[in-house]
Structures are given as C-alpha cells and as structure tokens.
Specification:
Low-confidence stretches: 1-10
Largest sheet: 8 strands, mixed
CATH architecture of the largest domain: Alpha-Beta Complex
CATH superfamily of the largest domain: Spore Coat Polysaccharide Biosynthesis Protein SpsA, Chain A
Bound molecules: uridine-5'-diphosphate, magnesium ion
Radius of gyration: 25 Å
Shape: elongated
Structural class: alpha/beta
CATH topology of the largest domain: Spore Coat Polysaccharide Biosynthesis Protein SpsA, Chain A
Distance between the termini: 25 Å
Number of strands: 8
Number of helices: 10
CATH class of the largest domain: Alpha Beta
Number of domains: 2
Helix content: 40-55%
Length: 324
C-alpha cells in the first residue's frame, strides 16, 4: 500500500494533491453551488502548495447531473467523473470515488452543502502534519431533521453500540479527510455489504474528530426515506455483528429452561393437588408465542444467509457507463 510522502515539505516544489470525492444522485441544483464553494477552498489551499482534483460520481441520476458534470470537466481539467449505469447507492459511489482518486489526501463529502467545505483547511492541518491519519466529522445537532428520524437515529446508535464490536460515534458523518494510507486501507475491504460508518472505525488508525451543527441542504431533497434508513441500519448491524444470531440461540436455551421448569410445576400440581391445568386459551397463547420466537429466530438466520449469498456471488459493486 502506498503511504503519503509526508516528508515532502508542502511549501517545497512538489505540490501535494487533495481529491474531493463527491457522490451525486439527482443533484443538478446543488452541484454548481458546491463547485463554486469548493473552488474557493482549493484556491486557499494553493497557498500551502496543495493542488486539488474533483472526483464526482454520478450514481445513476435521472436529472441533468451528468450533463452538468460533463460541462464542468470540459472547462476545468481538475474535474473528473464516473457515471454509473444505474443507481447503485451512496456506498458504491464512495468506493468508486476512492478508487479513482489519486490524491495524497482524500475528502469524502456530499454535494448538497450539508458538509461545510470551509472546514477542509482546518481538517487538513493535523493530517498534513502527520499527527492523525483521518479527520472525521460529527453533527452535534440534528436541526432541520424530522424529530421521528432523530429519535430512531439515536436508538440505532445505541443498538449498534451494544451489538457491534466497533464504536460508532453518534452523529458521525461520511464527511472525512484522510491520508492515502487510510484511503487504501478502506479500499482493501472488498465486502459487498458496505457500511462506511462501520468500515471507517474498523480500519483503525488515528482519527481526529471535528464537530459541526447540522445545516439544511442548499438545494434538492434528501434521498433517504425512513424505510431506506431503516434497511441501511439493519444492514449496518449485520455487517458488523453476529450477535443477533447469538441472541436467537440464547432465546432458544431460555425457552427450553423455562419449559422444563413449567413441566415440573405442572407435574407437582397434578401429583400433590390432583389438579390438571385447565384452559386451552393459555395453551394456544404459549404455542403462538413460542412459534413467534421460532420464526423470528429463523428470520435472523435467513437474513444472515441472504447476506452470505450476496457476498459469495461476488458481483461488482457498481458498473461504469462513462469515465472522464
Ligand atoms: N447519494 C448517492 N446515491 C444515493 C443516494 C445519495 O450518491 O443513492 C448522494 C447524494 O447525492 C448526496 C449524498 O449521497 O451527495 C448524501 O445523500 P443525502 O444528502 O440525500 O443524504 P443525507 O445528507 O440526508 O444523509
Ligand atoms: Mg445531505
């Protein structure tokens, strides 16, 4: 793996390169605003002898995103882009962008202005100095987000904390600045079920956290419906924890022990009191309850099996239609 040559003095002659990796899905309104702001930041970095490149990924947009990216790449040779053959999701777009990026440093960020570009010079400092390998961001507020979503997001982070063997910071964003070694180690994970929020902490290295307040998108709408987020969180839990499988086994053992106890109670009542337990309603409830738990456990097993099935097929994470 290629480590960034931090021994190069950034004020010396060989400029370091920073790549901005930007997944875009129907972002025709946001991209021009993003590009303008990013150019201003890159201009600022030039003074430190750091040049920049853009790596946009058009994730199967149905609007004019691709046209806009094409125009930008024609007028600015720092702009590169990949267009997927269809929508493969943000995780695939991030992966493709990291693979295409050439920078000594890579920033992954959204096109919608929710990841403040003005933070980049500050985030770069500790990584450039070699004190940290990655500068990560977390939102400290969830202003402008529906309360139901914030509530479930908090629950998700709690569940993830209990179930996964890695620590996922509450409010952590995919907005990160990393050195080449960190980016390459992310790329060394080839799994199909990609969950960046878990992959980032899993690879380790030294991470410095930056906090910021949530801002609204500059344009367009969020691509995440409640159910899409729900499925994403289930995927995340399954990608980083096998504990749900263990929970199913523990439930089985627990029920077995309880049933042995109950058989004992019934036998004693029958022998001592001569009282056969009456009532079919309780029996039906117990049968329904137990079969519910059984189906739930089988469901967990099936979910892991289906994930394994997708992994062993080893299909590509994305397909590229145009590359520039
Ligand atoms: N995105 C993508 N593919 C998708 C969904 C989203 O490339 O299937 C991009 C989107 O264009 C944006 C970023 O991922 O640049 C984050 O998406 P969004 O802003 O909708 O998510 P939120 O900020 O609400 O978490
Ligand atoms: Mg966003």
């Amino acid at each position: 793996m290629k480590a960034p040559d931090l021994s190069i003095d950034s004020s010396g002659s060989a400029p370091l390169l920073i790549s901005l990796v930007v997944p875009c899905f129907n972002e025709q309104e946001a991209i021009p605003i993003f590009y303008k702001e990013a150019c201003a930041v890159l201009e600022e970095l030039k003074q430190k002898n750091i040049s920049g490149e853009f790596v946009f990924i058009d994730d199967g947009s149905k609007d004019k995103t691709l046209e806009i990216l094409d125009q930008l790449s024609k007028k600015d040779d720092r702009v590169h882009y990949l267009a997927f053959s269809r929508n493969f999701g943000k995780e695939a777009a991030l992966l493709a962008g990291l693979q295409k990026s050439k920078g000594n440093f890579v920033v992954t960020l959204d096109a919608d202005g929710q990841d403040p570009l003005c933070m980049i010079p500050g985030m770069l400092e500790p990584v450039l100095a070699g004190e940290f390998d990655c500068a990560a961001t977390r939102r400290v507020t969830r202003k402008g987000e529906p309360p139901v979503r914030s509530f479930f997001a908090r629950i998700f982070y709690k569940i993830m904390g209990v179930l996964a063997n890695i620590e996922i910071v509450d409010g952590a964003r995919d907005y990160r600045l990393m050195n080449r070694a960190y980016a390459d180690s992310i790329l060394s994970l080839t799994e199909s079920n990609r969950f960046s929020k878990g992959i980032f902490p899993w690879v380790g290295f030294r991470t410095k956290w930056f906090e910021y307040e949530n801002t609204r998108r500059v344009a367009g709408e969020t691509k995440w419906s409640f159910w899409k987020l729900f499925r994403y969180s289930i995927d995340g839990i399954m990608a980083f924890s096998a504990k749900p499988l263990a929970i199913a086994s523990v439930l089985g053992i627990l029920f077995f022990v309880v049933s042995i106890g109950l058989i004992g109670v019934i036998a004693v009542r029958r022998i001592v009191l001569g009282d056969p337990v009456a009532g079919w309603a309780s029996t039906v409830c117990i049968i329904l309850f137990c079969s519910g738990v059984q189906l739930f456990s089988t469901g967990i097993l099936g979910a892991y099996l289906s994930k394994t099935y997708t992994e062993v097929k080893r299909r590509p994470h994305y397909l590229v239609k145009i590359e520039k």
